[in-house]
Amino acid sequence: MTTAEKYVTAAYCAVFAIVLVYVVIIALKLTRLEREVDELAKGIEKEPAREERERTLVG
Amino acid sequence: MSLQAAQLRQVGRSYRIPLPGVAALALGLVTLALALVFFVVPNDANQGFSQRIFYFHVSIAFTAYACFIAGAWKALVHLWKRDPLADLESYVAVHQGLIFGSLVLITGSIWAKISWGHWWLWSEDQLVLFLVLFLFYAAYFMLRFSVDPGPQRANLSAVYALFGVVLIPVSFLAIRIAKNFIHPVVFTRHGPNFGGWILVAYCVSQVAMLVLAYALYRVELAGKRLDERLRGLREALA
Questions:
Q1: Which residues of B touch A26 (CB under 8 A)?
Q2: Mind telling me how many Å the CA of A37 is from chain B's nearest CA?
Q3: Helix, strand or coil for residue B165?
Q4: Is B187 part of any domain?
């Protein structure tokens, strides 16, 4: 591999490495958002059960 | 919850092309550009193989300018219509511009090393002005995150993004007004200094980088909006 080829490879690798790092950061963020949505969904599921229990106790 | 945040959670923007379509188009165009650059375009008579950095370096530079201009436009829309989504769009566009700006500096330095024998030349107006533009927009994030979320932060960020756009023509024209330069000029008043496959490869690379930036912009914007909506749901449930 000549010196010019090495530099061209380095330039293109830098472009793709940075874009890849960016995509990984976005993917991690989306994973966190997915987890938060699951937690919220669980919270919503528990909410009617608690209301039902409270109504039974009052009744 | 601020009124602005509440509006942001409710207001959406519909796009003609769905995000997977934009991402697939970006992938296809980048692949085509790479195929043209490495398998079709002949070696440059003066610089030889190393000139192949040009196709992505110049396209990325124009894409960074386009992102900063888009950020300024959205900032203007925010100041004009007080649209909170426009503030978020302006922020994401400036963020994309900064990512592409860092790529310009990295690929430019690599190209400078092989062509001029130096990673960086402080005597070159074009390089220094691009660095000034890059640092100016880097400071945008320092300003934005030093103010609490709300209308004040959105307004300050918008004004700053609008001021920054003035540096773009200065950076672009610096190479043309400078008397002593070694940075090559590829676009003159009479059109580009190249033709044939070089022009085709450059045009494809330029479109590929613009579509890639747009795809990344849409992905980041979707994530930011989802984050805002989730925060709103959490507050409603608490």
A1: 219-220, 223
A2: 7
A3: coil
A4: no
Domains identified in chain B, total number? 1
A36 chain-B contacts, CB cut-off 8 A: 230, 234
Q: B106–A36: do the CB atoms touch at under 8 Å? A: no
Closest CA to A29 of B95, B163, B14, B157: B95
Using CA atoms, how far residue B163 sits from B52, B143, B168, in Å, is 34, 13, 10
* DSSP-based three-state secondary structure for B191: strand
- Whether A20 shows a pLDDT value over 50: the answer reads yes
* Residues spanned by the domain of B209: 18-40+52-179+193-237
In angstroms, the CA A25 to CA B98 distance is 15
Could you read off the pLDDT of A7-16 as tens digits, one per residue? Answer: 888 888 888 8
Which of B103, B114, B219 lies closest to A7 in CB terms? Answer: B114
Give B95-146 pLDDT, tens digit per residue: 999 999 999 999 999 988 988 888 998 887 778 888 999 999 999 999 999 9
Predicted complex ipTM: 0.71
- Asked if the structure places residue B148 within a domain, the reply is yes
Give the pLDDT of residue B101.
95
Assess A40–B contact: CB distance below 8 Å, yes or no.
yes
Instruction: Decide if A38 contacts B81 (C-beta within 8 A).
Output: no
